[in-house]
Write a structure and sequence with these properties.
This is 2-amino-4-hydroxy-6-hydroxymethyldihydropteridine diphosphokinase. Pfam families: HPPK (PF01288). Keywords: ATP-binding, Folate biosynthesis, Kinase, Nucleotide-binding, Transferase. GO terms for molecular function: 2-amino-4-hydroxy-6-hydroxymethyldihydropteridine diphosphokinase activity; ATP binding; kinase activity. This protein is an alpha+beta fold. The chain has a single domain, classed as 7,8-Dihydro-6-hydroxymethylpterin-pyrophosphokinase HPPK (Alpha-Beta Plaits, 2-Layer Sandwich). Helices cover 28% and strands 23% of the residues. It contains five helices and six strands. Strands 1, 2, 3, 4, 5 and 6 form a six-stranded antiparallel sheet that branches. The longest helix is centred in the middle third of the chain and has 14 residues. It is globular. The protein starts with a strand and ends in an 8-residue tail after the last strand.
């Protein structure tokens, strides 16, 4: 089994799409934990605020199969096949870490968003502060301590959880 951390984001019908994503992801393996859901401003464009969280999944799927399932889930729930990077999203599912895999090809692992976006490092820190980032050698905590703009995040009162 491989431990996978998946980032989930939505800024269109956010409550529905976040809950749907967690439910759909549970079909790809054992859903271990979910972080707090954070609301954060859209970046790179003018749009509604996003809900973001990270879930940890134990899966026996290969990276290629897991990635295909994520894209299928996004499309099934309204994401355009040709969606641009900076625009509103019904659902955005990104593999942040896939075990200890390191790769430059798509999907790039570990995902560089760890170093750039508060809505990635904060929930990852919440779930696994002592996890060592493959290829980096630093813990999530060490990266989190250097993170900027964490104050733009606002915790959202949970309305569901993995255990439901």
């Amino acid at each position: 089994m491989t431990s996978v951390y998946v980032g989930i984001g939505s800024n269109i019908d956010k409550h529905k799409h976040i809950e749907v994503a967690v439910g759909e992801l549970s079909g790809l393996g054992d859903l271990v934990r979910q972080s707090t859901i954070y609301e954060s401003p859209s970046l790179g464009f003018q749009g509604a605020e996003f809900f973001n969280l990270i879930v940890e999944i134990q899966t026996s799927l290969t990276l290629e199969v897991f990635t295909k399932f994520l894209r299928d889930i996004e499309i099934r729930w309204g994401r355009a096949v040709d969606a641009k990077k900076y625009q509103d999203r019904t659902l955005d599912l990104d593999i942040i870490l896939f075990g200890d895999m390191i790769r430059d090809a798509s999907p790039q692992l570990p995902r560089k968003d760890i170093y750039h976006y508060p809505f990635v490092i904060q929930p990852l820190y919440e779930l696994s502060p002592e996890l060592i980032i493959p290829g980096d050698g630093r813990t999530v905590r060490e990266i989190w301590l250097q993170a900027e703009n964490l104050d733009v995040l606002r915790a959202v009162r949970p309305w569901f959880s993995v255990s439901e």
